[in-house]
């Protein structure tokens, strides 16, 4: 038989290769996505670190500008920051005149500045990472204390700290950018109550014990405040306001930012917002006062200050590496899949070749692997063996049927021919013999018809309530003459309470086959016993004989068609070999089972197990 041609897209090898390629592509894509995502995440993290470094650079350069009247000498600070942060740092004026640069002079600047360094308008000190509007607290100018003033105030602060430590968990002395000390209590307790207990009372203010040295301006600060007042007065007078006294110093909660106020100001129109106007005038006056003490505004350029640059850019070399790695993965995957697929397909091809051999050869598949394909090959070989055995049984069955039919037909034909030729008279004895041969033929044909119906699933049964005892008595009566002729005693043992829901004709046929088989194999003076009893939800019909029994090796085959324990027995002594298979099919049609037990030399026992049925209501 010519093997069928399989389309290439449906071949197992092609499907395996396609699956492996798909898996490899998905793996490479997933790996590339993971690599890009991880790299992007790392870049974002690095950008966050760069942003922190940028803020630090801006804060330090703003501090430098707040503490120096010009940018002379800033080159050393720029180079130190560049070496510490790994960034390129450049400072220019508003017209892009270079002030300082950590790179060589011929290196072009980034496209735009990262920030402006202007301590008079931008505060990068109060809150790290933020650029607040206002004057940088480090721009103190004429408010910076002299060394002697700082020393005197530090002494007072240390004495107050020692007193505060007796009432709080911890106190520290800190300084404003101008050098003025102030006390900070770590647990946040209000320090006003400490002065009433004598802390700091160094003979300055009676009753409170509070030393005003830390609360009032020094000579340097008084001079700077007087100058600030003179600078602010023209602006206030132009706004129809009058400064009724000098400006004083106050501090924010951290003590780092000196603020001018409170203001002793009067105006003729109380409906306008006086405080905001006054603050604006004082702020502008402070910028005018500090301008000679701070460096002019400058623009800050950083090496990666252009945030429009792509976050992730792959070079040609890296692209080539990724493409090469992906190609290598694909090649290895395809090669491994091809090897594995070939090993998988080889036993399947062997199975296909064995299945395509002519049926009469009963070819086996030469596969010895222990995987799923090996199990399939083993099942295929078992199926081939069963098919070969069935074929042998079929041939034996055809031979047995021919033999069974030939003997009676030969007898009938012979006697009819001699009668036709006038050699024998058709007396009643001859006709009776011919009738018996015809009955044998009829019985064989009926048995074959019953087996064919059972195989086709068309074996019909007509169920009705049947008393098991009546069934046994009827079968015994039908076979008693044959038992007497063979010199065999036929006995019955029944239970009157056992009922069946069965076809009485088919059950008599099944029991009759067992009884006739038992009589045939029981020698003279032997005994055949029919019994019926209830066993739980079942009814057991048993036929027991005292014949030679059945060998243990033959018991599994007794219900097979045309099987005989002794192949040499004739039809007269061995039967047709169809009785027991018919019994098995009849029991299956009644949802029952047929079993055989025997010991050589002690007879045989055949048991029919059927579901029990309740007795009819009209039976007492």
What's the structural blueprint in terms of helices and strands?
Elements: H1 12-67, H2 74-85, E1 89-92, E2 98-101, E3 115-117, E4 122-123, E5 132-133, H3 147-164, E6 171-175, E7 181-185, H4 192-196, H5 219-238, E8 241-243, E9 249-251, E10 258-260, E11 265-267, H6 274-290, E12 298-302, H7 316-355, H8 372-420, H9 428-456, E13 464-467, H10 468-486, E14 489-494, E15 499-502, H11 504-521, E16 527-535, E17 538-545, H12 571-574, H13 579-589, E18 593-598, E19 604-611
Parallel strand pairs: 14-16
Antiparallel strand pairs: 1-2, 1-12, 3-12, 4-5, 6-7, 8-11, 9-10, 13-15, 16-17, 17-19, 18-19
Show unreliable segments. Answer: 201-210, 252-265, 305-312, 568-574
Spatial ordering of strands, largest sheet: 14-16-17-19-18
Query: How would you characterize the largest beta sheet?
Result: 5 strands, mixed
- How far apart lie the N and C ends? 70 Å
* Number of separate strands: 19
């Amino acid at each position: 038989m010519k093997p069928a041609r399989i389309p290439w897209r449906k071949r197992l090898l092609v499907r395996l290769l396609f699956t492996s390629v798909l898996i490899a592509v998905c793996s490479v894509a997933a790996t590339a996505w993971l690599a890009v995502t991880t790299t992007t995440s790392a870049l974002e993290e690095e950008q966050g670190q760069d942003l922190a470094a940028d803020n630090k650079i801006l804060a330090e350069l703003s501090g430098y500008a707040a503490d120096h009247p010009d940018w002379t000498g800033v080159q050393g600070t720029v180079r130190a920051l560049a070496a510490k942060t790994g960034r390129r740092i450049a400072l220019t004026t508003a017209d892009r005149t270079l002030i300082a640069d950590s790179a060589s002079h011929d290196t072009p600047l980034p496209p735009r500045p990262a920030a402006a360094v202007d301590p008079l308008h931008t505060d990068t000190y109060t809150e790290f990472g933020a650029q607040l509007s206002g004057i940088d607290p480090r721009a103190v100018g004429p408010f910076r204390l002299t060394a002697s003033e700082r020393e005197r105030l530090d002494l007072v602060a240390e004495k107050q700290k020692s007193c505060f430590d007796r009432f709080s968990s911890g106190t520290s002395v800190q300084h404003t950018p101008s050098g003025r000390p102030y006390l900070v209590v770590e647990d946040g307790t209000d320090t006003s109550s400490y002065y009433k207990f004598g802390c700091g009372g160094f003979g300055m203010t009676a009753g409170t014990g509070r030393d005003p040295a830390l609360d009032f301006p020094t000579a340097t600060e008084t001079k700077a405040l007087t100058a600030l007042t003179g600078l602010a007065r023209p602006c206030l007078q132009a706004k129809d306001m009058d400064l009724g006294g000098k400006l004083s110093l106050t501090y924010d909660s951290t003590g780092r930012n000196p603020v001018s106020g409170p203001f002793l100001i009067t105006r003729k129109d109380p409906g306008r917002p006086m405080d905001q106007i006054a603050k604006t005038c004082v702020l502008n006056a402070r910028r005018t006062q500090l301008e000679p003490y701070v460096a002019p505004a400058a623009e800050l350029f950083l090496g990666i200050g252009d945030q429009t640059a792509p976050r992730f850019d792959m070079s040609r070399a890296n692209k080539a590496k990724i493409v090469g790695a992906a190609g290598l993965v694909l090649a290895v995957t395809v090669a491994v899949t091809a090897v594995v697929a070939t090993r998988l397909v080889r036993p399947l091809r062997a199975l296909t070749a064995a299945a395509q051999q002519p049926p009469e050869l009963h070819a086996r598949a030469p596969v010895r692997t222990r995987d799923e394909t090996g199990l399939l090959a083993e099942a295929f070989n078992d199926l081939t063996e069963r098919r070969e055995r069935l074929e042998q049984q079929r041939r034996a069955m055809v031979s047995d049927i021919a033999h069974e039919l030939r003997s009676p037909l030969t007898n009938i034909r012979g006697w009819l021919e001699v009668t036709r030729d006038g050699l024998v008279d058709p007396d009643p004895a001859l006709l009776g013999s011919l009738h018996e041969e015809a009955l044998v033929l009829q019985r064989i044909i009926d048995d074959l018809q019953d087996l064919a119906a059972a195989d086709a699933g068309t074996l019909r049964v007509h169920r009705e309530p049947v008393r098991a005892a009546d069934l046994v008595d009827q079968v015994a009566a039908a076979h008693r003459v044959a038992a007497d002729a063979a010199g065999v005693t036929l006995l019955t043992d029944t239970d009157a309470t056992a009922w069946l829901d069965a076809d009485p004709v088919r059950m008599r046929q099944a029991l009759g086959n067992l009884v006739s088989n038992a009589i045939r194999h029981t020698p003279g003076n032997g005994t055949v016993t029919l019994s019926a009893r209830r066993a739980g939800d079942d009814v057991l019909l048993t036929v027991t004989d005292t014949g030679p029994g059945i060998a243990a090796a033959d018991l599994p085959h007794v219900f097979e068609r045309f099987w005989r324990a002794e192949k040499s027995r004739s039809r007269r002594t061995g039967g047709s070999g169809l009785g027991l298979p018919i019994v098995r099919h009849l029991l299956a049609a009644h949802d029952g089972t047929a079993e055989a037990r025997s010991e050589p030399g002690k007879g045989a026992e055949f048991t029919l197990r059927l579901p029990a049925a309740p007795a009819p209501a009209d039976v007492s």
